[in-house]
Protein: 4-keto-6-deoxy-N-Acetyl-D-hexosaminyl-(Lipid carrier) aminotransferase
Organism: Gallaecimonas xiamenensis 3-C-1
Amino acid sequence: MHNQLIEFVRDCYQSQDFIPLHAPTFKGNEKAYVLETLDSTFVSSVGAFVGRMEEMLQDYTGAPKAVATVNGTAALHCALYQAGIGPGDLVLTQALTFVATCNALHQLGAEPVFIDIEPVAFGLCPKAAQAWLAEHAELDDQGQCRHKASGKAIKALLPMHTFGHPAQLDELAALGRQWHLSLIEDAAESLGSFYKGRHTGTLGRFGVLSFNGNKVVTTGGGGMVLCQDQKEGEHLKHLTTTAKVPHPFEFVHDEPGFNYRMPNLNAALGCAQLERLDAMLANKRALAGRYQGFFAGSDYRFVEEPGYGRSNYWLNAVLCPDAQSRDALLQATNASGVMTRPVWRLMHKLPMYSQALRGDLSQSEWAEARLVNLPSSPTEASHA
Ligand SMILES: *Cc1c(COP(=O)(O)O)cnc(C)c1O
C-alpha cells in the first residue's frame, strides 16, 4: 500500500524530488502585476489591485460586498467584531479546525463551544449543535440566546468548510434562525467550493477567505470578508482602514479601528492568481479523481465531496482504517519525501482551549485518529 501510494503520487507529479502538501504555482500574470505595483510605487494599502481583487471576488462568489484584509485570521477577527461578538460571549464551532478559528474568538475575549462534526464533510454537525443548545441554552426575555449555567450570551454559529468540502449550511442557517445566532462561515479553505450552487461563505452573515501561501489562491498573506449586507460591508471596510473619515488632508478617525487592509503588493499577486482560478480548480478536481480511483476497493476511504455540493478539493484526504495504519502511512510517505500530514490536533486538546465548553466529540475523535492529508498542489499536466 505505502510503496504503491508513493509511486502513484510521484507519477501524478512526474517528480522524484520532495513533494510538498500544497505549493502555489505562478504561471500567469503574477510577476507582471507585482512589478506593476513597484513601478507605480503603490505597494501599500492604497492602490488599484486591492479594489480590483474585491470586485473579482464579488463577481465570482456573488457576495454583495467583499472586504480585503491582511490575512484570514484578521478577516475572521473583524467579521466577528462586526457581528457584535465581544468579551464573555460564546460561539459554537468545531474542535476539528485550524487553530485560527479559535484564535480569532480569543482575540475578542469570546470563547468557543466545541461541537462535533458530521462524518461526511467534517463540518459543524447541525444535529449535534441542536442537541447541545436544547440541553444547555435558552432564549431570554429579549430573545438573546443564553447558556443556562453561566448566563453568558451565545452569539453565533461558526462552521468551517473542512479541506474545502462545504458544510451543511441550510440546516445550520435554520438553527441560527431558531436560536437567534449569526451564521459566520470560516470559508478560509473553500474558495471555489459551492453549497447547492451558492459559493461557500455567502450563506451566512459573513464568510471569511484566506489567501495564505498554502491555500488554493495566494496573495503571500491575505484574507477577505464576504458580506451579505452592503452597509455592514461598508462599515467593515471602514473598520479595517483605521476608521478614518475621508478628508482632503485631516486625520480624523471616528471609532477604534483595525489596520487590516490588504496591501496592493499582495493584491496584485491575488488578481493574477484569480485569473487562473478555474484552471487550478479543474486541475485539483482531476487530481482528486485520480486519488479516488487509487483508493477505490481498499480499506482506506478517500474523502469525497458531499452530494449536495461541489468541493474545490483544496486538500485531498484519506481515512485510514485505524490510528496504527495512519501512523504507518505518515511514517512511510514522509520518510520517502512525499509530504503527508495528520489532521490538526483537536482544539480542546490544546492547552489554551482545554477549558472551553464542549459537547460530545466522538466523530471528531474518530476522524482525528484516521485522517491523513495527501499532496494536493496543482499538477504540471494542465499548466495550472
Ligand atoms: C488558513 C485558515 C485560516 C486563516 O489563516 P491565515 O493564515 O490567517 O490566512 C482560518 N481558518 C482556517 C480553517 C484555515 O484553514
